[in-house]
Amino acid sequence: MTGLTLSALLAVLGMPGTAQAEARFEQTPYGAQKVVFDFYLDDPEKINAALFWIRSLMNPLTESPYDQAPEFLDLKVVIHGTEIVTVARKNEARYKDAVERMRYYAQLGVEFRVCGLAAEDYGYSRDDFQDFVIMVPSAITELAHWQLQGFALITPQVMTRHKSIEEIR
User: Fold this and answer.
1) How many CA atoms within 13 Å lie on the side-chain side of 116?
2) What's the pLDDT tens digit per position in 136-153?
């Protein structure tokens, strides 16, 4: 078998060569989802990026082949960082896009829960928040509660990108 390239030799042996190999796709059999998102962001402007984490969970599940109805997903978002200002009614114009997206998700059944302790730190009361917000006593206690109820915890990591995708591709 002289003169064969490594790829050709691997092909003769029934093994894919590295030059011809590609990633394989697996259609994971996702079932019902119970998720609590922990939003604790260092900059309220990062709320839009964090909301993409919800979209990234919902879209595949509500589309084919899963076709799950959004109301059968049990999703909660616990807000207790600087992003709390985005759900204050007085800031609606400033965070319009984020508020519209959260309102849309709330209409699909996503619960947005705000930490009462954080609200107090910011000088907010329950009537300062959007109507789709639920105030709870404590974010940490809330996160523990839902995890004990079998909810998966997802904490979005929102980074600041310094280079475009094209530059690092």
Assistant:
1) 8
2) 999 999 999 999 999 999
